[in-house]
Prior knowledge:
14 helices, alpha/beta, 8 strands
Amino acid sequence: MKHFFAIFALLLCVGVNAQVKQEIFESFKLQERRDVLYYFPEDYDTEKKYPIIVVLDAEYLFDQVVANSKFYSRFHGMPQSIIVGINQSENSIRFDDCAFDQENGLPTEKGKKFFEFIGMELIPYLETSYSAAPFKMIVGYDITANFENFYLFKEKSLFNAYVSISPTLAPEMESRIPTRLGAIDQKIFYQIIVEADKSKNTTKISALNKALKTIEKESLHYFYDEYQNADHISIATYGIGKAFDNIFGMFKPISTKEYKSKILTSEDPVFDYLKNKYQGIEDLFGFKKTVDLNDIMAIYAGTRKKEDFESLKPLSDLCKREFPNTMLGFYFEGEYYEQMGEPKKALRTFEKSFGMEEIDFLTKEMALEKIDALKADFGY
């Protein structure tokens, strides 16, 4: 398919592996050329899938979003992402892009065209030109934060996650957003970041927050963060990292708190927690995440703590697939047979683990100790 609406007139960085590049995007919908920034992970790989993050007011927010994305993905707090920023400060074009009727709160004619530019040109271009995952997020500030809400009112929301920084809400938006989020049949992450300073928007934002907090729905993940030392200007620099932490929380490795509060307190088999966590990631983001060694060890610790030795078998099978050259799979399988009262199988399996690579706390010495103990106990 030809993307006749995209003209690449200015390249700051050449090639897909470039970190950031800037392009002039000629929009058929807007009938004008727009300045757009793109960030691609340094190790971009066409075999992987990357969520798309759209950043409005890119002159102010793009660098912050990129910096936080790089940090969180580096330390496994979120998946690596493609980030696209739309510059809107020149000639205050943001007020035209995101303008709404003061009576009914709906987008103006220019606002409708900007809405279509993002949804019908920019996003499709990224999806067809790059290795994009289904998960999409949008970030806006002030009037652009209000604008992003219009995508909620499509039959299916274009975005899975919304980050709204100190929004200037259009008329009736404080009631329309909760009504829509209460009705939409889709998993949505909705984050509001606000300053403590009072403004003309405070009453509406408070009403919106109050209404959203009353929605009891598993598919809605709502977060509200207020910063006491921020004003309406400085708030643009607050909270993006916290928003990523909230939205991409399930992508993070299992924490000590999560281990104690969710794994140890659950009545389900310990392995089910790991299986459900990674299936949830695949369902939400549209790609499989490589299983973290940290998560393997957390589940292993849980099986021992709760004496759920049945979970050792599926855990060992998983380790054989994810860490095939290491001791993990056969060592855990050996423990499983040991606990199930099958010493001969346990002995043979520990012997297999002894011949493989050490990993984390597992050493050949530990496997040898198991082998010697079984031989002594059963006279093999």
